[in-house]
Amino acid sequence: MEENESWVVDLGDGTHQVRTCVWSPPGDHPVGCGVIVTVKDNKVVKIEGDPSHPITQGRLCPRCIAMDEVLYHPDRIVHPMKRAREDRGKDTWETISWDEAFDLIESKVREYWSDPGPHSILTFTGTGREITMYSAAYCHAIFNSPNYCMVLSGGACYGPRCTIANFQLGAGYPELDYAAYFSDRYDDPRYEVPKYILVWGKNPIYSSPDGFFGHALVDLMKRGSKLIVVDPQLTWIAARAEYHIDLRPGTDAAIAMALCNVIISEGLYNRDFVEKWCYGFDAFAECVAEWTPERAGEVCWVDPETIYGAARAFATNSPSSALWGLAIDTETNGVQAGHTFLAICALCGYMDIPGGITLAKPASFTGKWRYETVNSVTPESRAKRMYDLDGRYKCWDAAGPGPLPDVTLDWLEMEDWSNVEEPPFGGFRMSYWFGTNPLSCMAASPKRWEKALAKLEFNVSQDVFMNPSIMALCDLVLPLSCSVEHEGIVFPHFGRNSHFLGAMSKAVEPQDTKSDVEIMLELGRRLRPELWPWETPEEFFTAQLHTAYEWGFKDLQQEVVHQQEFEYYKYEKGLLRNDGKPGFDTPTGLIELKSSVYPVFGEQALPYFEEPYFSPYSEQIDQSEKDEYPLVLTTGGRHIAMFHSEHRQISSLRKLNPWPLVTIHPDTASKEGIEEGDWVAIENPLGRCVMKACIRPVVDPRVVHCQHAWWYPEQEGEAPNLFGNYKSNVNNLIPHKKVGVTGYGAPYKTVICKIYKVDSLEG
Ligand SMILES: Nc1nc2c(c(=O)[nH]1)N[C@H]1C(S)=C(S)[C@@H](COP(=O)(O)OP(=O)(O)OC[C@H]3O[C@@H](n4cnc5c(=O)[nH]c(N)nc54)[C@H](O)[C@@H]3O)O[C@H]1N2
Ligand SMILES: Nc1nc2c(c(=O)[nH]1)N[C@H]1C(S)=C(S)[C@@H](COP(=O)(O)OP(=O)(O)OC[C@H]3O[C@@H](n4cnc5c(=O)[nH]c(N)nc54)[C@H](O)[C@@H]3O)O[C@H]1N2
Ligand code: SF4
Ligand SMILES: [Mo]
């Protein structure tokens, strides 16, 4: 502890407290909640909420409260470990030193660089943990590879929403205005409480996604905001909503068009705003004219009166605001749903007004840096980025920093390259994973990915715990320092609409572990020293901050939370466009109700509804399959105690969610003879999984909901069991390669299924 460290307080009894913001590991999105960590003898003895944090004001989820259980868990990986390639699937890990681990990576990378070339090193990334800010840099600026990959079919998380926002809005990531930019928050005289909040396919109370502090919704409900919730489940917020649009999963685009239909046909839209700032109104109005609430009600199983009521309430109560969630991304028709969601907000003129939706410059300095590292890939290597062999997904190729996951799987699955016209560059040799446990969580059809990744000669992961994917496939694993064991910066929304920057300060010295940034700097210095001049993380963070501010990392630590400046009505003031002109950063300079960008990539300029590919009403599916698998399965609603596949070994959290749950309506359960707590198989033509029945009238009798990312750390880890990875894995039932025209969106939340009672988890 140094004298000038204001974020550290000595309590005088051998303990001290550190004020810091939390990100990962263990996994989390960049909410940057404020914590006070009490430390004794370099050990965390308590973690509590920091009441002085302007956003979170002392509130914490159980995951942060249980952080000490993660830190001192006996199963935590605390040294680098390697294993012979022929031993994959076996628990024959050998502890090695960091020097040996770095030497091994360096020698493998140099070998693959020379034959067949840097493109043969693939990196695989997970959702927005801290490493998200740096994973593209690893791939591009360390390995010199263009193949920055994910295993998430259709990139079905956040990327679709960001791309839609870039194309149609040209203004960062649109966010509910919860006064997050103001130090006096809701009391700031510039602020107004939204009258209605439209919450679409999102359950932020449990998920706090992408930097949005979900509990802010409760703050606003207490201040009078009413809710309109679009969700097939009666969630906690849906139960408190004025209007709950309990749609059939995957039919969001139709509901959104019906809401626009009412807003336009009843003349409820903001004419001034639309005339001045929107492009393509007439064409858009014509397009939604056929989507009456009656028609959408029939397609989507919703009472038309609810659609009328919600549209009128939202449009006639200014200011109102809206939140869009993962359900938009997890549909092949999701781009159209997202397009129309933004149109609803634009038609009502709620963009960048107090109590509306906050906008930001399209890419702030932090958002840009990681993608700009693509320029450090040599032209020869850049030419060897995987592409769709049938020439599709040009939109993804233009917008995404690496190949589409579905394209990556295609290339890895090819048995030999000889039947391909353009020989794919001599194949792939190595993969490096950060923040992903692909076989348990991200991958649709995970057995296909297991086989595909097994072809690579050298797989490396950096993680906190052993997991099924590492056990099945890796040859080297590097142990990570947790959030309170390393330094970092929290960038809510990954820099796209960051209301603050948070300092992550080290509260305790780590064991033999390192942070993602420490590992990155060491590998960078060894492999491409000309690009990596920084000796320490602090130097690196300060250099990043200096691209936008005069102050550096130590200053941020002093402040703990640095709220950013904010102005409303930026589009009127020329603050959204690089040329300084009023308007939006789109080709027309306006919000594009009719897109001028999508047609360039073969997508329609106006929204449309497409029946989900794998639904009981799809024309793509045989009648016999529809008869056998009559239910609609939706997946992945978050539990507050677990972040994706993590936390299953943390006993206080596991107690809150001990088994994978399938939610079933009581009528459906009784038809199948299923009782609360019974083991139930969920099955479709692609696969099956087994979960425990949770019988509640919160879903339609034709719908079931399954949790995702289940595995059992307490079970045998060696193959073939792999900690029970495939027993309760709902992604066994999710298809690959059913993505949208743009490449974005995949059916993680809408497939057919049947359910039946079984005797046990093994049943
Ligand atoms: N505790 C916790 N927090 C998390 C995560 C976690 O695993 N655990 N994961 C993080 C990640 S990566 C993400 S992307 C975010 C996601 O967080 P959110 O964006 O909040 O999304 P989900 O929680 O997946 O789902 C939200 C709601 O969508 C509903 N839904 C299901 N199908 C449909 C549909 O077809 N249409 C509509 N309109 N709604 C539907 C579900 O019933 C659910 O209530 O959460 C992040 N935060
Ligand atoms: N059926 C279904 N499947 C889904 C979803 C769904 O809703 N339904 N949601 C999807 C979504 S939105 C997403 S984003 C994916 C998420 O998928 P992933 O992001 O791949 O999540 P995990 O599988 O939990 O893998 C994360 C791994 O990273 C480690 N880790 C934690 N923190 C850090 C860190 O700071 N650095 C590094 N290097 N590692 C860390 C964890 O210990 C864990 O082993 O899952 C998808 N899968
Ligand atoms: S959202 Fe919850 S788990 Fe994440 S940092 Fe905040 S309190 Fe911790
Ligand atoms: Mo996600």
Give an overview of the whole structure.
The chain is built from 28 helices and 28 strands. Helix content is 29%, strand content 16%. Helix 9 (252-265) crosses helix 11 (281-289) and helix 12 packs across helix 13 (304-316). With 763 residues, it is of the alpha/beta class. Strand 11, helix 8 (236-239) and strand 12 (243-245) form a beta-alpha-beta unit. A 7-stranded mixed beta sheet has the order 6-5-18-17-16-7-8, covered by helices on one side. One ligand MGD binds next to helix 6 and helix 14.
What distinguishing features does this structure have?
alpha/beta; single chain; 28 strands; 7-stranded mixed β-sheet; 763 residues; binds iron/sulfur cluster; binds ligand MGD; binds molybdenum atom; 16% strand
Share in β-strands: 15-25%
Biggest beta sheet attributes: 7 strands, mixed
Name the assembly state. Answer: single chain
Query: What is the tally of helical segments?
Result: 28
SSE topology sketch:
Layout: E1 8-10, E2 15-21, E3 34-40, E4 43-49, H1 62-65, H2 67-71, E5 81-82, E6 94-95, H3 98-114, E7 121-125, H4 132-142, E8 148-149, H5 159-168, E9 175-176, E10 196-200, H6 204-207, H7 216-222, E11 226-230, H8 236-239, E12 243-245, H9 252-265, H10 271-277, E13 278-279, H11 281-289, H12 293-300, H13 304-316, E14 321-324, H14 326-329, H15 334-347, E15 357-358, H16 365-372, H17 379-382, H18 394-399, H19 405-413, E16 430-434, H20 446-454, E17 458-463, H21 468-473, E18 476-479, E19 488-490, E20 500-504, H22 516-527, H23 537-546, H24 553-559, E21 561-563, H25 570-573, E22 591-592, H26 623-628, E23 631-635, H27 651-656, E24 661-664, H28 666-671, E25 679-684, E26 687-695, E27 703-706, E28 751-758
Parallel strand pairs: 7-8, 7-16, 10-11, 10-14, 11-12, 13-22, 16-17, 17-18, 23-27, 24-26
Antiparallel strand pairs: 1-2, 2-3, 3-4, 5-6, 5-18, 9-15, 19-20, 20-21, 23-28, 24-27, 25-26, 25-28
Helix pairs in contact: 3-22, 4-16, 4-22, 5-15, 9-11, 9-12, 9-13, 9-15, 12-13
Bound molecules: ligand MGD (2 copies), iron/sulfur cluster and molybdenum atom (MO).
One ligand MGD is lined by residues 24-27, 126-127, 129-131, 152, 157, 326, 434-437, 440-442, 462-465, 467, 480, 516, 635-636, 644-646, 708-709, 730-731, 734, 748.
